[in-house]
Structure formats: C-alpha cells, structure tokens
C-alpha cells in the first residue's frame, strides 16, 4: 500500500480528525506539486466506473470531497457513491478505504410517472417508492433496473415533464418540542410551528411516502386543502 505500513494509515474511524489535521498542515506549510490531495483533479465521467465506499458520517463524506476532490454522485446512509478509476481508487486505498464496484442502474434513482393500472402493491413489490398518489397516475422513485421491471409487468412509465409533483399540505400535532425535529427528519417541509394546549402544531408540506412514514411512527397527520392554483 504505497510502502506504508498498516500502523501508518489512519483508520476510517479516525479519518475526519486526520483530514482536519491534514488541512491545517497543508494550509500552513503548503504541499509539493503532484502529491497534494488538494491538487488532485477528478476526471470527467468518461471511461469511469461506479463505486461505493463506506463512511462514518456526513462530516467524513464532506471532508473526503473537500480534501481528496472526489465528488459524490450520491450519499445514502453510510454509503458514499462516486465515479472512479484506478487513479482515484489507488488514492483511496492509500488511506485504508476499500472501494466496491457497483451497478449504478441498481443505485441511482429518478422520479417518473406511472399511469394508474394494476395495483400499488405491485409497484412496491418491484422495489419502487410511491412518492405521490394522484387520480390518474402515481409518482414513483425508482432505479433504472426497477423501471425496466415495471415495464415488463405491463406498467406504462412516462417522464414527468412539466408535471411538477406538489406536496400535500399537512397539519401535525406533537406533544413535545423534540418531536418537531423528528417530524422534520421524516422529510416534512415545516412552514410554521405554534405552541398549543396539546403541545405544538406543525404546518408543512409532505409527499405521500413521508406521510406514510409519519403515520407508521405514530404521528397523527391531517391533510389540508391544497393552495389555490394546485390542480391534481
């Protein structure tokens, strides 16, 4: 591993601290040309493959992007996905990372419209997420592999085009202040929070998949009328 012993390579758990120290050192002393991680330029996507590496948290992911100049294509939970090549992977290996090549068609998702035909259960079984339930169609989030499966199952998949998905307007009552943060963590766009006799009243916007998760978590969600001009 570039002539370095395992003891000299910082573990991933100590990686954020190591990068902070590296930033300070480079800022004070500079770095020799061709060896500075800050001079590293990631090539374009041409000729590169899709990889995943594990990170401890978003701080570590941000430092890797800032210091090693590796831009994530997606960060999901503790997985950092990126387009890479041998040069990038050698750099990561030198710091103890073990990149794994993955199929981006199984990872990257997109929003599409699926004409209502068949059952929503079949959409879920195919692995897609139902983001919005409209009268004539569903808005789903799916990978390319899942979309291909839907087409084989007979679903009609279309681009959203100018049909911008509009969240539901919701009212949620919680008993404790910390529950406001829990609601926000379930992807609710909070417009306003007011104190009430029952606790706190949250007014916001949320898509159907978030509303489903809120109800599953025990929150009572009241769906309000859409704002003027919204046509479903």
As a percent range, the share of helical residues equals 25-40%
Task: Give the tally of β-strands.
Answer: 12
Strand composition percent: 25-35%
Please give the largest β-sheet.
4 strands, antiparallel
Strand order, largest beta sheet = 2-3-1-4
In total, how many domains does the architecture comprise? 3
Could you characterize the architecture of this molecule?
It contains 7 helices and 12 strands. The chain has helices at residues 15-29, 58-68, 86-93, 120-125, 144-152, 178-185, 208-216, and strands at 49-54, 74-76, 79-84, 100-101, 109-115, 129-133, 137-143, 157-158, 168-174, 189-195, 200-206, 221-224. A 4-stranded antiparallel beta sheet has the order 2-3-1-4. It starts with 14 loop residues before the first helix and ends in an 8-residue tail after the last strand. It has 3 domains: 6-105, no CATH class; 110-158, UreE, C-terminal domain (Alpha-Beta Plaits, 2-Layer Sandwich); 168-224, 2-Layer Sandwich (Alpha-Beta Plaits), CATH 3.30.70.260. With 232 residues, the protein is of the alpha+beta class. The relative contact order is 0.10. α1 (15-29) runs parallel beside α2. The model is unreliable at 1-13 and 20-44 (pLDDT under 50). The protein is flat, with a radius of gyration of 23 Å.
Layout: helices, strands, pairs:
Blueprint: H1 15-29, E1 49-54, H2 58-68, E2 74-76, E3 79-84, H3 86-93, E4 100-101, E5 109-115, H4 120-125, E6 129-133, E7 137-143, H5 144-152, E8 157-158, E9 168-174, H6 178-185, E10 189-195, E11 200-206, H7 208-216, E12 221-224
Antiparallel strand pairs: 1-3, 1-4, 2-3, 5-7, 5-8, 6-7, 9-11, 9-12, 10-11
């Amino acid at each position: 591993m570039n002539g370095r012993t395992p003891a000299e390579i910082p573990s991933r758990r100590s990686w954020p601290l190591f990068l902070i120290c590296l930033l300070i050192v480079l800022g004070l002393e500079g770095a020799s040309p061709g060896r500075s991680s800050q001079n590293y330029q990631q090539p374009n996507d041409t000729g590169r493959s899709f990889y995943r590496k594990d990170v401890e948290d978003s701080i570590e992911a941000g430092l890797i992007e800032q210091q090693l100049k590796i831009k994530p294509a997606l960060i999901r939970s503790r997985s950092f996905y990126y387009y890479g090549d041998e040069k990038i992977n050698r750099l990561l290996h030198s710091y103890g990372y073990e990149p794994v090549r993955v199929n981006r068609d199984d990872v990257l998702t997109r929003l599409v419209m699926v004409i209502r035909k068949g059952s929503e259960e079949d959409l879920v079984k195919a692995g897609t997420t139902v983001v919005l339930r409209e009268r004539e169609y569903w808005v789903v989030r799916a990978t390319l592999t899942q979309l291909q499966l839907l087409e084989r199952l007979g679903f009609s998949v279309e681009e959203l085009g100018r049909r911008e998905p509009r969240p539901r307007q919701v009212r949620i009552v919680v008993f404790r202040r910390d529950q406001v943060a829990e609601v926000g963590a379930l992807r609710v766009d909070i417009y306003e929070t007011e104190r009430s006799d029952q606790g706190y009243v949250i007014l916001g916007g949320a898509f159907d998949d978030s509303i489903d998760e809120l109800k599953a978590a025990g929150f009572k969600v009241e769906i309000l009328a859409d704002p003027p001009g919204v046509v479903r």
